[in-house]
Amino acid sequence: MRTSAFPAWIAHRGRWIALMTFVLVIGGAWTAVSAVPASSMTGGRVPSPREGFLAPDFTVERSDGGSWGLSEVRGDGVILNFWASWCPPCRAEMPALERVHNDLAEDGIQVVALNVTRQDSESAAMAFAAELGLSLPIGLDRTGEIERLYQVRALPTTFFIDAEGVIRTVVIGGPMREAVLRAEAEALLEGPSP
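The structure corresponding to this sequence follows.
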């Protein structure tokens, strides 16, 4: 019975080590050559909807017909609140968001209420905004693209983003008390996190 030369070749320890070393060197070289450094795209911070990471950029249509883009307000702190009109905690915390917007807009805090319109009705959202007399910008995420980008799994979800575009705090659920909103907004005004 004839045996194959291949198993005998591999059975030789020195050849096996040489083969594995060659494969590892080639694999490492390929990884190094083909990798795109994060710094070339994001200034060294990888976009991710998590605390300590750069907030993913987006532009959204506003309920008043204009648009709002996160990168357009770089330099200001941003409170980005995902909500729906059918969500009781969202409804309960909206007056506090409006007061923070009115009190801190001139200090450099942007409050944006991003309606998850894919899960809501635009008419119900606008009726709710009119009922409360909201003046803060209301974005309409009609397709759910921004909701998916930020991996929103519960409503309300609020992202506190500093002037450099880094997510400092994420609050899932609510209603959030006004004191908490103000404390987080003040922390954004203090400057970037260490």
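Residues 82 and 113 are 6 Å apart (CA to CA).
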